[in-house]
Amino acid sequence: MGRWEFMRKLEELLSDISPSEREEALQYYNDYFNDAGRENEKEVIQALGSPEEVAEIVRSGLMDDPDKGEFTENGFASQQKAVRQNEIIQSEKVEGSRKAGREEEQGTCRGSQNRAAQNTGSFAEGETEGGKEKDGFPTWAIVLIVIACVVLSPAIFGIGGGALGVLVGIIAGIFGIVIGIAAAMVALYAAAAGLVVFGIVALFETPLIGIGLIGGGLLCAGLGVLFMILTVLIFREGIPALIRGCRALWKKITGKKEECRA
């Protein structure tokens, strides 16, 4: 039961007395609640008892035995009940003051801990007595980063240029090998054709030399076929695999940069 329900019930129970006496009694208990404070309303209700008990005290004081109670400047109250209520309210005030002191000490300790965490470089957010403090990137750190980039830029560009040169050199070397294999294939085919022709011509004059030339031509033709197969495999499998590897490496590098930015 809350304060307003208590007072409404008490007003209903005191409807049989005169309006002026009812208003004085209600004003008296309202003042008790105000003195105790909102946080102590339940304790005051427990101390006063039920609305029926309070109404009975008021009626007994007004009707049966007026000496048991009196109308003070705040309203009517039984003398024994008033003494008890005053003691309870005073104790509640003392307890409220102690509780407020403990809360103030806890708030001071929390504020000191938050300030210590901020001084040691912690980025954890916390509420202090002055409000919330926003984390920010310090200006001196930005200045140091800019200076470091300017000072280290030759080394950075040198390393980057060297890495780019190595990558371009590897790619150029691979293409050079491919072109060399293709050129060797063409040369072997040409040599095979020439040897076969000269072998056929020499076959009529000196058959042994002609057969040797034709055999050398066939050998060159076989090597040419081998180089042709190797060239086809490089163009079909090697170059696409190289392109896919470069693309994956680029995505990995750019992906790491995006993660760092995020």
Automatic annotation (TrEMBL):
Residues 92-133 are annotated as: Disordered. The chain crosses the membrane at residues 137-157, 163-181, 186-204, 210-235. Coiled coil: none annotated. The keyword Transmembrane applies. Keywords: Membrane, Transmembrane, Transmembrane helix. It holds the Pfam family HAAS. Residues 109-122 have a biased composition (Polar residues). Residues 92-107 have a biased composition (Basic and acidic residues). The keyword ATP-binding does not apply. This is DUF1700 domain-containing protein. It comes from Suilimivivens aceti. The lineage of its organism: Bacteria, Bacillati, Bacillota, Clostridia, Lachnospirales.
